[in-house]
Amino acid sequence: MSDIITEQLQTALAETEAATSSIELEAVETKHLGRNKGLNELRRAIGGLPKEERPAFGARINEAIGTLTTHIESRRALLMEAELQARLAGETLDVTLPGRPQAVGRLHPLTQTANHVKQVLSGMGYEFVDGPELEDYEYNFGKLNYPEDHPAMDEQNSFFVTDSRLLRTQTTALQGRVMANRRPPFRCATIGRCFRYEAVDATHHHTFHQVDVFMVDEKASMADLKGTLGTFARAMFGQETLVRFRPDFFPFVEPGVDYAIMWRGRWLELGGAGLIHPNILREHGINPEKYTGFAFGLGIERVHMIRTGVDDLRLYLENDVRFLSQF
Ligand code: FA5
Question: Lesser CB count within 10 Å: N end or C end of the chain?
């Protein structure tokens, strides 16, 4: 019978040595030292032995259990230390490594340009107002003194949503909304998206941005308009900037002009301007004998293109970070 004890102990010791993790070792321990298992199970045989052999057999089992327990404990200590070291190695933080660079976002070039325009005009006393992109026909054309079926409307083909509502073609549409609620004197400006149904090319898009400026006061004259546009152009493009005015037609101004700046030896058109048409003042209950005003508008894309040399405005809406991240 004592051979069985030796045999079991040898097997158990071999399995203890073979265990490669504390979890495997726990399975070995349960198998050989668990209640009524392995060496403990051998105790059941005691009852079948002659009386005089029983104490020695029992003592041998206890001895085997003691030996196995000692081995398991020392193996467990070894395995757990190795497992701890492996875990620590995985968690090691090398504080001498360089940090991982993070990409920093920035404002879209058109937003940067709009902010710059806003800063300059705010400094000149203009209050910024927002208007809807989905606009009433009346504000976009009707209240801006467009005669019915006038060809000037053809230059601004529109996206109509219903017969009387369209995506605004010009931020000038806000004039009527402001004049309905304010009495002169006032100086307002707005920046926003405009839409025109036209063929897209390097200088025209169906979606673009404009800034519109308008003021009404006593004795506002063409001289004030020219002075204001000159100041604005110099603040945007540099102190040496020259401005040129030429007669042009817009139904909502009289007289109307287009204006250009001298940039690297060439005249580049910026937008339209003029004195607010007396019909518009009258339409909003403002006496044109007492009050006059001026207005001007220009494209935000155009401003950025002149300043940076970008030669295709389609790039602004393509959202290609290789282009956008240059600004
Ligand atoms: C107007 O829209 C007038 N509302 C400007 C104005 C305001 C005149 C106040 C008088 C008084 P125009 O259609 O020329 O005018 O457009 C003005 C500027 O908007 C242009 O010079 C151009 O820079 C920009 N623009 C017009 N259409 C487009 C387009 N399809 N794509 C990109 N920019 C455009």
Answer: N
> 47 pLDDT exceeds 90?
no
Rounded distance, CA 103 to CA 32, Å?
59
**Furthest-apart CA atoms within the chain: distance in Å:** 137
Mutate to test the pocket of ligand 1, among 144, 197, 250 (most ligand atoms within 8 A of CB): 250
Query: What is the pLDDT at residue 1?
Result: 47
Q: What is the pLDDT of residues 271-326, one digit of tens each?
A: 999 999 999 999 999 999 999 999 999 999 999 999 999 999 999 999 999 999 99
HSE of 8, CA atoms in CB hemisphere, 13 A? 25
Cα–Cα distance measured from residue 77 to residue 79, given in angstroms and rounded to the nearest whole number: 6
* Strand pairing class (186-195; 127-128): parallel
Q: Which helix (H) or strand (E) holds 294?
A: strand 291-299
Mean pLDDT to the nearest integer, 256-279: 94
* Listed residue (173, 138, 137, 130) closest to 158, CA to CA: 137
Residue 195: how many CB atoms within 10 A of its CB?
21
DSSP 246: E
Pocket of ligand 1 (CB under 6 A): 170, 172, 196, 198, 204-205, 208, 210, 212, 250, 253, 269, 271-274, 295-299, 301-302, 313
Atom of ligand 1 nearest to the CA of 272: 8
Q: Is the pTM of this model over 0.90?
A: no
Write down the H helix ranges in the chain.
Answer: 2-18, 22-33, 38-42, 54-91, 109-123, 137-140, 174-181, 222-237, 278-283, 300-308, 321-324
More confident: 264 or 85: 85
